[in-house]
Design goal:
The complex is a heterodimer.
Chain A (H helix, E strand, L loop, with lengths): L2 H8 L18 E7 L2 E6 L8 H15 L5 E5 L12 H9 L2 E2 L25 E5 L7 E6 L5 E5 L3
Parallel strand pairs in A: 2-3, 4-7
Antiparallel strand pairs in A: 1-2, 5-6, 6-7
Chain B lengths: L2 H21 L8 H32 L7 H6 L10 H4 L5 H22 L5 H29 L3 H14 L4 H4 L3 H9 L9 H14 L24 H10 L1 H5 L6
Classes of the chains: A alpha/beta, B mainly alpha.
């Protein structure tokens, strides 16, 4: 087994809340190291309290187990801290087609003022924030004033 | 318990107890979006607590490997006199004004302290601080906006803010009175003495209070301390809080989801 093979298998591990995104798309998967028979995996937790991280770790074991890999060590690495900047461009496109507005394309400045570019449903820029806090730690709630639909925004972090 | 572990546990206890208090609002918030906002903040705080408890457990287990502890043992099996959180964070929630003011006071403190802890010579303390700051920034912003909204709001909201300021006033001096584990942390380089952020804290609070048409607060010249959360001498509220928070683990030891 080699590192690339493992990384490819791990693209089956999705965010339990946003199942179109894999842990690679999210920038959660930081490193895979093959040490003889053992696989060392380094993941970076998103928000401190994110409950999906526990599920993701279980899923990593399940997915690798299905492919015959049992000798696995998963380590959560706190530094450097996870940032939404690590989300891949492909991830941002997937996010948008799922109906969630993606975080700002360029580097995040953490002043809490970042806004989605447009409504992911109708592309209008006529949008307003309902609340900076949404259904999960990572999302804010917005509404489109043209198509009148609410939508989630994945915040800069 | 050694002083470094106590320093880490003081950080953990603060965010766990405040996170727990905030979670008491879940399902009871004034409007849905704010219920969700405060629940999100509670979740952030409990997540930060987990990081600190895991670090404390790892450190304690290095010192006494024969008696291993986990993050859950630390959170659920210690008694009130072993907790090292501020008296401020164990206070009952009261009304929305008191809750958001408590959050503003604590988050401002946390923001200033954790910025200093980025320089800790314990890499994990620096890492947890770096990570937590991203969330704390939102907490400061959210609570600041509420202080303004209520302070410069209606006659009633303004009155409630004055009441909240009066209510929380006795618990502020503790934030800046150093405990033995803080002296040790400062000399070892693991942490800092809280008095170095005191002036900045008062400056930021009063600057916001001015915008919110609220009266300035001043620090006591000679603060009197009968209670000291940092020394494990708590108000009557912590025991009741722990009775609820720890009930399940104590009644059914080792249970999990």
């Amino acid at each position: 087994m080699n590192k690339e093979e493992i990384i490819s298998i791990l693209s089956e591990v999705k965010d339990p809340e946003i199942p179109v995104l894999s842990i690679s798309d999210l920038g959660i998967l930081r490193d895979v190291e093959v040490e003889g028979e053992k696989i060392n995996i380094r993941i970076s937790p998103t928000y401190s309290g994110c409950p999906a991280m526990e599920i993701i770790q279980e899923d990593i074991r399940t997915v690798l187990g299905k492919h015959g890999f049992e000798n696995i060590e998963i380590k959560q690495v706190l530094s450097p801290a996870w940032t939404s900047d690590w989300m891949t461009d492909e991830g941002k496109i997937k996010l948008r087609s799922y109906g969630i507005a993606a975080p700002a394309i360029h580097g995040c400045i953490l002043n809490g003022d970042d806004q989605p570019e447009s409504c992911p449903l109708c592309n209008s820029k006529n949008i307003e924030m309902i609340s900076r806090f949404g259904s999960t730690s990572c999302k804010a709630l917005y509404r489109c004033l043209d198509c009148r639909e609410p939508f989630d925004y994945f915040k800069c972090h | 318990m050694d002083l470094l572990s106590t320093y880490i546990i003081h950080q953990a206890d603060n965010v766990l107890i405040l996170g727990h208090r905030n979670s008491e609002w879940t399902g009871h918030g004034p409007i849905l979006e704010q219920d969700i906002a405060l629940s999100n903040i509670a979740l952030d705080l409990v997540g930060q607590a987990r990081n600190f408890y895991q670090l404390a457990a790892a450190h304690l287990n290095e010192l006494t490997p024969a008696e291993p502890v986990t993050e859950d043992d630390l959170a659920y099996l210690r008694d009130a006199n072993e907790f090292r959180n501020f008296i401020l964070v164990e206070q009952v929630n009261g009304d929305w004004a008191k809750t958001i003011l408590r959050q503003f006071y604590f988050s401002t403190y946390q923001f200033l302290l954790y910025n200093r802890l980025l320089q800790s010579n314990i890499p994990e303390i620096a890492a947890i601080s770096e990570k937590s700051l991203k969330e704390t920034r939102y907490h400061v912003k959210w609570s600041s906006e509420w202080v303004i909204r209520l302070g410069d709001g209606t006659e009633e909201s303004h009155a409630r803010m004055l009441e909240a300021i009066h209510n929380l006033n006795p618990w502020i001096s503790e934030l800046f009175l150093p405990a033995d584990f803080e002296y040790e942390a400062e000399s070892s380089g693991a942490g800092v003495l809280p008095e170095i952020i005191k002036d900045e804290w008062y400056y930021r609070v009063n600057k916001l209070f001015e915008t919110a048409t609220l009266p300035k607060i001043t620090s006591e010249k000679k603060p009197m301390q009968i209670l000291s959360g940092k020394k494990g001498v708590h108000s009557e509220h912590l025991g009741l809080l722990l009775a609820e928070m720890q009930f399940l683990q104590r009644a059914y030891p080792g249970s999990n989801w």
